[in-house]
Amino acid sequence: MARSRLLPDNFTLALLATVFLASWLPATGGVGAFLEHATTAVVALLFFMHGAKLSRQAVLAGIGHWRLHLLVVVSTFALFPVLGLLLRPVLQPLVTPELYVGVLFLCVLPATVQSAIAFTAVAGGNMAAAVCSASASTLLGIFITPVLVSVVLPQAGSAEHDVLGGILRIMLQLMLPFVAGHLLRPWLAGFMGRHAAALKYVDQGSVLLVVYTAFSAAVVGGLWKLLPLPALAGLLVVCAVILGLALGATTWLARRLGFSREDEITIVFCGSKKSLVSGVPMAKVLFDSQSAGAIVLPLMVFHQMQLMVCAVLAQRYARLGREAAATQE
Questions:
Q1: DSSP character for 298?
Q2: Residue 133 and residue 59: Cα distance in Å, rounded?
Q3: Nearest 5°: CA angle at 199, between 21 and 138?
Q4: Cα gap 48→19, rounded to integer Å
Q5: Contact 297, 98 (CB under 8 A)
Q6: Where do the structural domains in the chain lie, given as residue ranges?
Q7: 18-32, pLDDT tens digit by residue?
Q8: What is the pLDDT of residues 113-143, one digit of tens each?
Q9: Cα–Cα distance, 116 to 62 (Å, whole number)
C-alpha cells in the first residue's frame, strides 16, 4: 500500500534519526574536529553535483518570464524576512530566543529547487519558469542570504561574521563548486543521468552528515538543556503561521497581478518554500558550530511541513485543472 503524502518521507525520517543519534552519541574531540573538516568537503561535493544537474536549456526556456521571477524573488527574500520580523513580538514567546534566530534564518534562505519543480509538475504549472526561478533563487541566495543575515541577525553566529566574509566563504565553499559542476555538465550529464538513483543518496547523505556534525556540536554545548519541550511544540505553530501566510500571500499576489493559472502555480510553489539542502550548508558557513544546531532545527521542521502542505495543495490544483478541462470539452 502506498504511503500517505501526509506522512514523513524517508529522508525526513533519516533526518530525525540523525538528530537522535547526535543527541545520544555526539561527535566529540578528534572525531568532531575531523567531521568539521569532512563536512566542508562534502558540502563542496553537494553543490558541485547541483551545478552539474542544472540544465542550461531549461533555464533559457523560462528566463524571459521576468515578472514571475521578480515576484518569486520578492517573496523569497523580502516577504519572508518581513513576516519573520513583524511577527517576532507575537511568535517569539512561543519558542526560545535561540530557536527564533533559526526561524529568522530560514526566512532569509533561497527557495528549494527539486520539490518546488516536482510540485509544480504535479499541479500542472509552468515547468520552464519553475526550473529557471528555483535555480535563480539558489544562485541569488549565495549573495543575498549573507547580506540579509547581517541585517536581520546582526548579533547572531560567529563573532567573526561579516557580510563580505560571509559572501566570500559561501562563494569559495558553495559557488565555486557549483560553477565547476555546471561547466563540466556536458561531460557529466550522461553519467549523472545513468546513476541518478545512487547520486540521490550521495546528495541526501551530504545533508545528513552536516546535520549530524552541527547537532553534535550543539548537543555538546547544551542544546537540549536550553530547549524545553513547550518551545518545540511552539515551533510547530510558528512554522505553520509563516508557511500559511506565505502561501496565502503568493496566491493573492499572483491573482491580483493577473498571472495565468499555470504561472500562479509556479509562483506559489517557488515563492513559498525554503531550501533545506542550501540552508544547512549555509548555516555551517555563516554560524559557529554550537549555534548551527539550534539554527537549523526550525528549518528542518519547516521543511517537512512545507512538503506535507504543498503535496495536498498540488493535488488540489491538479484536480481543479482536470475539472476545468472536463467542463470545456
A1: H
A2: 8
A3: 85
A4: 26
A5: no
A6: 10-320
A7: 888 888 888 888 888
A8: 777 877 888 888 887 788 788 878 888 888 8
A9: 15
Q: Which residue has the cell 498571472?
A: 259
The DSSP symbol for 111 reads: P
Per-residue DSSP letter, 2: P
One-letter amino acid of 219: V
* CA 280 – CA 207 distance, rounded (Å): 7
* Domain 10-320 in this protein, CATH class: mainly alpha
Predicted pLDDT at 9: 65
Spatial separation of the C-alpha atoms in residues 92 and 89, rounded to whole Å: 6
Given CA atoms 110, 113, 116, 120 in this order, what sign does their dihedral have?
positive
According to DSSP H, which parts of 55-113 are helical? 56-62, 66-74, 80-86, 88-91, 97-107
For the CA atoms of 73, 75, 81, 86, what is the dihedral angle to 10 degrees?
150
- pTM of the predicted model, to two decimals? 0.76
The alpha carbon of 92 is separated from its chain's Cα centroid by a whole number of angstroms, namely 21
Q: Name the grid cell of 97.
A: 530566543
Total count of residues recorded for the chain: 329
